[in-house]
Amino acid sequence: MMEIEFVATCLFGLEHFLGEEIDRLGYRRTETIDGRVTFIGDERAIARCNIWLRCAERLYIKMGTFRARTFGELFEGTKAIEWERFIDREDAFPVKGHSVKSKLFSIPDCQSIVKKAVAQRLDNEYGMCWFPETKTKYQIEFFILKDVATLMIDTSGVPLHKRGYRAIAGAAPLRETLAAALALNSRPRENVLLWDPFCGSGTIAIEAAMIMKNQAPGLFRRFAAEEFAVSPPAIWAEAREEARAAIRQTSFEAYASDIDESMVQLAADNAERAGVGDIVRAFVADARTIRTGGRRGTIVCNPPYGERLGSMAEVEQLYAQIGRHFRSLAPWQVYVLTSSERFERLYGKRADKVRKLYNGMIPCNLYQYFKFEQPK
């Protein structure tokens, strides 16, 4: 087996969850920085990680890292990489990327330099000055941070947060990878009900149910690297069989409720497509009136922020109302993700723990309440 260095990217704040997932798959982490985890694996990791990683946005093959303060350094550093290990003479190799806090800030110029350097390297290897680029697509991505360039090949294609079960999303959808992290953070258990009373399209409840079934999030979708020579069909068949065999029966139950009937129906449809319709119960309910029913439970939710849904005054009133009501559900634990910096004051109680996360580009906090006192 070939030793390969990989980079898995994630939303800021999810590095801890992603690193633990990589550990569980048996791969060795080598570096963690904001938004990405680097690790060592083999060819099978291309399939296994794409299929299994819940909190990753994409999986890349890391081709090389070098200092690039000038276009000359970018060209020579790129040319020195063994692109022929993966890219054949008729394969396509488009280039895109980003530059942050670096002297080389023009993305189009960097794209052009990297493309020319890869072409020259392949020309030296294959004796071709022109490449038809008609076969397998190897998407090359560069990331230049503080004058250090990292060159990678994307193995995922469509981002990993797109599991395939959410054909239609709500007005302000929560990314599946973030929903999975929220569920993991709440430590879902067999005998504890998980309830999202602001369910929208049902993503938090669905991701929690998939976790409890041990259902791989990428089991039912395809990936760019399925066309790569380094990961032939047998590797993908083996990884999918491993994932199917790992699915387990569970008595876990998740509630997905909302005051919007159309959202509830959407959540129910999404749960069915995700294969967890037997675990997720979707129904209409007002978050300010829900009851424990005598059960142990955990609330995990992403209520409106006032940025894309509702006015800020309405949202702040809602936070005060759910603060009073959720405290009456003690000893239930409560996890609330919001961008409001005044949330604790409005909710009426300081959180026991606060975790910084990002919902797309929106900075948020996950307010965690797990030390409830019984109501007087």
Describe the structure.
- This protein is of the alpha/beta class.
- 31% of the residues lie in helices and 23% in strands.
- It has helices spanning 15-24, 43-52, 71-79, 107-126, 176-185, 203-212, 233-246, 261-274, 312-327, 343-347, and strands at residues 4-9, 28-33, 36-41, 58-67, 95-100, 140-145, 148-154, 193-196, 254-258, 280-284, 297-301, 333-338, 353-359, 362-369.
- The protein has a seven-stranded mixed sheet with strand order 2-3-1-4-7-6-5. Strands 10-9-8-11-12-14-13 form a seven-stranded mixed sheet, with helices on one face.
- Helix 4 links the parallel strand 5 and strand 6.
Outline the low-pLDDT stretches.
none
Order of helices and strands: EHEEHEHEHEEHEHHEHEEHEHEE
Gross morphology: elongated
Class from helix and strand fractions: alpha/beta
Widest sheet, order of strands: 2-3-1-4-7-6-5
Radius of gyration: 23 Å
Q: Average pLDDT across residues?
A: 94
